[in-house]
Amino acid sequence: MDFDAAKQRRVLQSRSYISLAPNLIHLKTAHGHHEAAFEVEADTATLTFYHGDPVRSAELLMAAAEAVTAEDRSIRSVVFDGHQASLPPHISGAGGTLDSEILWQWPSLWLPQLSYPLPPVQEMTAGRYHPRRPAKPKGTVYRRFIPWLERDISFRVADPETDLAAFHRWMNDEQVNTIWEDAGSLDRHREILEERIADPHVLPLIGSFADIPFGYFEVYWAKENRLGPFYDADDYDRGWHVAIGEPDYRGKKWISAWLPSLMHFIFLDDPRTKRIVGEPRASHEQQIRNLDRSGFAKVKHFNFPHKRALLVMLTRERFFGDHLWVPAS
């Protein structure tokens, strides 16, 4: 069976899954509704479809594999009872085994739009030598179903017109302003959004749960960023900033979804990104604890002009090797 990545994205764009009982899932895709049972032995899940026509397609099998590995870090691989031949040969191992570490690095499951990374053509910006960055996408760049919340999370590129009112309100929130120090007028916030969108090294994103916007995120290339001179930045290191603007979406319940999902998006967006960095305020103990639980290593303290910061770093090897798309319990 031929594997068509564009078809896969169409089939799975509205997928969801729930646990009906231990080791039993209900899966919904554009192919219809399916129920499947699975057994786990020696870190391998064997999955069997029933109660519905198990469409023999790579799209459905990979969606089912996602469902059984989305909440259990111990599952290292998935095999399918009677359907191994439908897996894409270039990502399945011997005997049709699907390695979860490979599965979760397969971008077409979560990225609605795909493009090949630019070849590494070097250029200079403000005295910094770095690879040329790709043109920015528009619209939704990542979508994932979060089973423990039973809703989607998505990230889309910020728009100065449709998102200005929410961005203005969020930046003037007392808790956000304590960290960002960007409170101000509507015109000031329009300028900030327009500047971020025009800046080739920054991708400004709006995060939504079930299509309800809850926060603002910036993903940046570290080498061109203010952080770059403070450590030995790799060409494809990326960093991030976050402002959770809606008070109802603050706290551990929501962090367990947006933080690993944002890291997942960053690693999928360019396969050459091996490290994600951050620079939280050194005194922000709660944020540092959250990062520690999410796999970030503490590298060093350093001084920005405006704050004492802690450099933290998450490697691709640790994120996928330790299955950190599943939050710490």
UniProtKB/TrEMBL annotation:
Known EC number: 2.3.1.-
Pathway terms, separated by semicolons: Siderophore biosynthesis
Single GO biological process annotation from the record: siderophore biosynthetic process
Domain Acyltransferase MbtK/IucB-like conserved, residue spans: 156-203
UniProt superkingdom: Bacteria
Keywords: Acyltransferase, Transferase
Gene3D superfamilies: 3.40.630.30
GO MF annotations in UniProt: N-acyltransferase activity
Record-linked InterPro entries: Acyl_CoA_acyltransferase, Acyltransferase_MbtK/IucB-like
Designated name of the protein: GNAT family N-acetyltransferase
Organism of provenance: Rhizobium redzepovicii
